[in-house]
Amino acid sequence: MLALTFTICFVTGLISHLVQHPPPWFVWPSRPAGLYRVTQGLHVISGIASIPLLGAKLWNVYPKLFARPVVRSVLHAIERGSILVLSASALFELSTGLFNVAQNYPWNFYFPQVHYAVAWVAAGSILMHVAVKLPVLRDGLRRRRDEPEPDRERNGVSRRAFLGTTALATGVAVVATAGVTVPWLRPVSVLSWRGEGPQGVPVNRSAAGAGVVGVATANDWRLEVVAPSGLTRLSLADLNRLPHTTATLPIACVEGWSQQAEWSGVAIADLLRVVGAEPGAEVAVTSLERNGIYASSVLPGTHTADPLTLLALRLNGEVLDLDHGYPCRVIAPNRPGVLQTKWVGRLEVR
């Protein structure tokens, strides 16, 4: 089970990293619209499930730390070294991941970069550990099927009771937290870390925290659109006069929470046509926020050509709340929340 949850967590985390920092060869589709919601939800849920499973695994094998002699052979030294690296990297990944979902960062390093790097260390140490243990795996698979497995005890706990308790603890941890991304679990997810925000959608970063209250509400605000034909400046009234599209899309955060909502605004494809550009062109998006890590993003051609990629002006039938990105924000299908840029001030067609 730990191998399964670690694999899911690693693969979905790799997907999230590639979506946020895409290399030239990587293409992330705009449909299905809720795919990122699923992959990142699985990432966080599998990470939470891994915590009691890893605790059980370490409890089960810790007596081997005191086995003597410390090193019996070169192969044994490699095995012990792989276990040390595996345990340290796994504990680091799970503990920092928990801090991240709580948006609490008691360290000085950039979490996404370090979390991603240590994930590769953990994956490599797992492969090394499995390779070293292949003889043990082979012997176990050769065991005669008619030999009953003894219900061994350790510290007064039987094997069956130990496995049952571990399974129960894992199930409780998942159910208690999964409601942040699984709507039908929300009534019983007592440890969900995001409640409803303004207009029924949670907020990670407020307008006050981003320092944009004044510029976002100024009467002279204009959206700058830079296209091959030149610069176009559009007021909020100009945007409201353009044809609007309404779409029900999830906003999915890298911390695992997601929320479906109804968004309305100008389709990016329509806006590109207005300024003389073609849908499918890459568009750089710049926020009125100046100092945030995600104050800018890039909409790839797969998304600018999608009619559901919006410059949103309304949320759930109401004018965007300031904390949700007023006067306008990007909302696109199958995108991480950190790339759904709020308080948009400039679009540049590349």
Automatic annotation (TrEMBL):
The chain crosses the membrane at residues 42-62, 83-102, 114-136, 161-185. Gene3D superfamilies: Oxidoreductase, molybdopterin-binding domain (3.90.420.10). Keywords: Membrane, Transmembrane, Transmembrane helix. It holds the Pfam family Oxidored_molyb. Residues 216-349 form the Oxidoreductase molybdopterin-binding domain. It comes from the Bacteria. The keyword Transmembrane applies. InterPro entries: Di-haem_cyt_TM, OxRdtase_Mopterin-bd_dom, OxRdtase_Mopterin-bd_sf, TAT_signal_bac_arc. PANTHER family: BLL0505 PROTEIN, PROTEIN-METHIONINE-SULFOXIDE REDUCTASE. NCBIfam families: TAT_signal_seq. This is Molybdopterin-dependent oxidoreductase.
